[in-house]
Amino acid sequence: MSPQEFCLLLVSVLSSVAGQFFLKLGALKLGKVNFTNAISHLLSIALTPELIIGLACYGVGAIAYILLLTRVNLSVAAPSVSLVYLFSVLLGFFIFRESLPLSRLIGLGFIVSGVILVVYQK
């Protein structure tokens, strides 16, 4: 993977993680949505700034991913983007104080190991 391709990957991953961060902030602001209040929350969902920013971040990530796909095989790009899982779990742990059990850490280790194996070239 060239430095330009790596930058596209990084933009895609970090934009997607930022999108998840803002969507979580917006979701916390909305409160719990259930069947009885879903319709009344539709307008709130459309007007919550954090949710709009989160969706925009996802858009940037998608564009970067499309540009990456013009340069890199899908069999390399798709597993590499799974690093979003790693950063999302770390974001949840450090920012939102979510628990991080050992089994999740082991799973993240497998993801990182898999990405390294897929991207590594001799």
Layout: helices, strands, pairs:
Blueprint (H helix, E strand, L loop, with lengths): L2 H28 L7 H10 L1 H21 L4 H8 L1 H12 L7 H18 L3
Helix pairs in contact: 1-3, 1-5, 4-6
Computed CA radius of gyration, to the nearest angstrom:
17 Å
The overall average pLDDT, rounded, is 91
Strand count, sense and barrel status of the largest sheet are: none
Kindly report how far apart the N and C termini lie: 11 Å
Q: What fraction of the residues are assigned to beta strands by DSSP?
A: under 5%
What count of domains describes the coordinates?
1
Task: List unreliable stretches of 5+ residues.
Answer: none
Q: Describe the global form.
A: globular
Proportion of residues in helical segments: over 70%
Q: Could you state the order of secondary-structure elements as H and E?
A: HHHHHH
Give a quick rundown of the structure.
Helices cover 80% and strands 0% of the residues. It is mainly alpha-helical.
3D architecture notes:
With 122 residues, this protein is mainly α. It has one domain (3-119). It is built from six helices and no strands. It has helices at residues 3-30, 38-47, 49-69, 74-81, 83-94, 102-119. The relative contact order is 0.16. The model has no long low-confidence stretch (mean pLDDT 91).
Can you give keywords for this protein?
122 residues, mainly alpha
